[in-house]
Amino acid sequence: MMSLTITPWLIIGFVGQVLFTGRFVVQWIASERARRSVVPLTFWVFSIAGGVTLLAYAIYREDPVFIFGQAAGLLIYARNLYFVIRERLGRTPVVVPAEGGRGSDTAA
Q1: Are 37 and 74 in contact (CB under 8 A)?
Q2: What share of the chain is helix, strand, coil (3-state, %, to 5)?
Q3: What is the pTM of this model?
Q4: d(CA 3, CA 9)
Q5: Average pLDDT of span 55-74
Q6: Which candidate, 31, 64, 66, 86, has a CA 20 to 30 Å from the CA of 93?
């Protein structure tokens, strides 16, 4: 039988996992309320909070696979949060479809 010693780092790891898993609960509830699939701002906040906490735990554990996975994910979550905030502030560029292989990412 496995013995479990509760340490502050074990608690940090579990808190990170609860935050990270909580993002799916938040997304599920928001989608049910909207009656369509949505990704609310809170999803990205939970993703970053859980990711940072799990990254700290991974560094403590000195697990390079876990560290790489969490660090890479954090970059994606931060970038998506940036897009959401930028859109809410009305700073989203208009995307123009490319014609004939050439196009612009923003409207002039």
Answers
A1: no
A2: 70, 0, 30
A3: 0.76
A4: 16
A5: 96
A6: 31
Burial (CB count <10 Å: 0-12, 13-18, 19+), residue 59: middle
Coil, helix or strand for 102? strand
Read off φ and ψ for residue 6, nearest 5 degrees: -85, 120
Query: Is the dihedral angle over the CA atoms 91, 92, 98, 103 positive or is it negative?
Result: positive
Q: What is the mean pLDDT of residues 35-47?
A: 94
11 in Cβ contact with 55 (< 8 Å): no
**Three-class secondary structure of residue 99 per DSSP:** strand
Token duo for residue 7: 């340490």
CA-to-CA distance for 44 and 23, rounded, in angstroms? Answer: 7
